[in-house]
Design a protein that fits this description.
Elements: H1 2-18, H2 20-31, H3 35-40, H4 42-67, H5 72-83, H6 87-96, H7 101-128, H8 133-143, H9 147-157, H10 159-174, H11 176-190, H12 207-214
Helix pairs in contact: 1-2, 4-5, 4-8, 4-10, 5-6, 5-7, 6-7, 6-11, 7-9, 8-9, 8-10, 9-10
């Protein structure tokens, strides 16, 4: 009866509840965007999409080196998640810097909580500031962490803002592998020494192999 139906419903819902952001991203890809719409964003849209994440990661790294040198794996994981696309980017960065699972969990939790706050606040800030729809969409796409939250926040402003925000965020997502590779290379060169002798001094006989070991394969 009703109990059997509830059990079946739980089995059907559990995968979506555990990986909700994955399904949102799949939906965004299937939704697709007209290539003319992408081209309409021009160089300014690309600058927002591609220049913001490296700047945020660099700023977070420098800040962590000064104030939290003993928690650098957490700092880098959090910076990558904030800069690119939330949990996916945090997971990729955590693999690149060999962050403990507890620190990855903490980073994802902080990003998720903050994303809810910005999801509720930023669209109205954009409207109050009188931003044009394209500008509001670029701001939301470049600054709200989670992909699903970007679409929801920009949808509050207008369909045009939603389209712009989606293009900016998906462009950032598509470069996650590049950002992760950069983080792994920087960690090998400048990061703290890891136990076991395989980490952060960059003194390795096979840099390409080390990079491949650190690179999270799910990004591909």
């Amino acid at each position: 009866g009703g109990r059997a139906w509830a059990i079946q419903a739980k089995e059907w819902i559990d995968p979506a509840a555990g990986g909700g952001e994955f399904f949102i991203k799949v939906g965004l890809v299937l939704l697709a965007v007209d290539i003319e719409q992408v081209a309409s964003q021009g160089a300014r849209g690309l600058i927002v999409a591609l220049a913001v994440p490296p700047c945020v990661i660099f700023f977070g790294w420098r800040l962590g080196m000064r104030w939290l040198p003993d928690r650098m794996p957490l700092v880098v994981t959090l910076a990558a998640g904030v800069a690119v696309c939330g949990a996916s980017a945090a997971t990729a960065a955590a693999a690149a810097v060999a962050a403990p699972k507890s620190e990855l969990t903490l980073a994802i939790s902080l990003i998720s909580v903050c994303s809810i706050f910005w999801l509720l606040l930023q669209p109205y800030l954009a409207q109050a500031a009188g931003f044009p729809d394209n500008v509001a969409g670029a701001w939301l796409g470049g600054s709200v962490d989670l992909t699903g939250a970007v679409v929801a926040a920009a949808g509050v402003v207008s369909p045009q803002a939603e389209a712009t925000a989606t293009i900016v965020k998906l462009t950032q997502n598509s470069f996650l592998g590049v950002y992760t590779l950069g983080i792994a290379a920087a960690w090998m060169r400048c990061g703290p020494q890891e136990s076991g002798g395989g980490g952060g001094t960059g003194k390795t006989s096979n840099v390409a192999y080390q990079l491949w070991q650190r690179f999270p394969k799910f990004v591909l």
